[in-house]
Amino acid sequence: MTDDIALIQRYLAGEENAAEELVMRYQKQLYAFLYRMTRDMEEAKDLTQKTFLKAMQGLGGFRGDASFKTWLYQIALNTGLNHLKESRREMFDIDETALGSNGDPLDGLIEEERKQRIRNALHRLPERQRTAVVLRAYDGLSCQETAKVMGCSEGAVKAHYHLGVKKLRKYMEECGYAARP
What we know:
- The protein is mainly alpha-helical.
- The protein has two domains: 1-91, Rna Polymerase Sigma Factor, Chain: A (Orthogonal Bundle), CATH 1.10.1740.10; 103-176, Arc Repressor Mutant, subunit A (Orthogonal Bundle).
- Helices cover 73% and strands 0% of the residues.
- The chain is built from eight helices and no strands.
- It has helices at residues 2-12, 16-38, 41-58, 68-87, 105-124, 127-138, 143-150, 154-174.
- Helix 1 packs across helix 2 (16-38), helix 2 crosses helix 3 and helix 7 packs across helix 8 (154-174).
């Protein structure tokens, strides 16, 4: 976080390449997050760019109450949600690389079917639960970071996450996949 603050200060002092360093540091994470929201590579690229444009334009107002990463995720979430409201799409998809396969063709087919069932189950969750599960389980944000991104308390994040995982397990059991022991 200290490195981010130093880069922000350098950028605000007029050093343009400091912004490039911030973008390079976070663009893959934000792109993956926005791709899961939109399920469209081009839209995710556009939304990632919009996120960074909004962030750089508002950087003077960054107070440091949260980490720069959390602040960026909050901008990305709001940018993605606004886009989805305009296009009326479901949000979040599971990144194909988040779930591995051992390379066997039959295992690959089974794995692809499992991924599709997880996607379907994830899309059945209410928006807040889905957001909490994706940020915590797929993007690896802490409970505190997720709370800042979602604009709620850590307790609310824990509740959304817990209920979301519980419902995912139920949905997976309904479609014939037993929960892990």
